[in-house]
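A.,

Following up on our hallway conversation. Structure tokens first:
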């Protein structure tokens, strides 16, 4: 439930100023979910984490909360690829863009090492078919 709220809050993005208090509450809930998701190592959280950590300026469906952290994004991407998870095409495009400098790549390796020290837990759900995104978003398998 928290995942759905964090990815797609029931708030009107076009009416931000009139719902300012609700958006503040959303940010608290979403921040809490994404912080917990990064620590819990659940495979079903990888795609939502990728979308939130995806570099600003990348093409993606609109997500209200974004963290401009390309190093964490690249580390999460490598974990998702290693887990053979269906990854939306817009995430592949962002990960394969040649706009990451050496420092980002080096930091990504360090983050990857930290994130993979603890195993990513497979849920009882099939992560290859589950997606928090609408069916009309193009997916690409590796």
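Then the amino acids I'd put at each of the 142 positions:
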């Amino acid at each position: 439930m928290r995942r759905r709220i964090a990815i797609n809050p029931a708030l009107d993005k076009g009416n931000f100023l009139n719902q300012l208090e609700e958006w503040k509450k959303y940010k608290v809930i979403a921040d809490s979910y994404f912080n917990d998701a990064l620590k819990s190592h659940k495979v079903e959280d990888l795609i939502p984490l990728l979308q939130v950590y995806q570099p600003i300026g990348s093409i993606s469906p609109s997500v209200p909360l974004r963290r401009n952290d390309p190093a964490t994004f690249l580390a999460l991407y490598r974990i998702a690829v290693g887990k053979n998870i269906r990854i939306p095409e817009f995430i592949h495009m962002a990960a394969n863009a040649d706009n990451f400098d050496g420092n980002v790549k080096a930091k990504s390796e360090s983050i990857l090492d930290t994130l993979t020290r603890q195993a990513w837990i497979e849920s009882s759900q099939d992560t290859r078919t589950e997606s928090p995104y609408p069916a009309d978003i193009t997916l690409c398998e590796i």
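Residues 20-40 form the longest helix (21 residues). Curious whether your intuition agrees with the design.

B.
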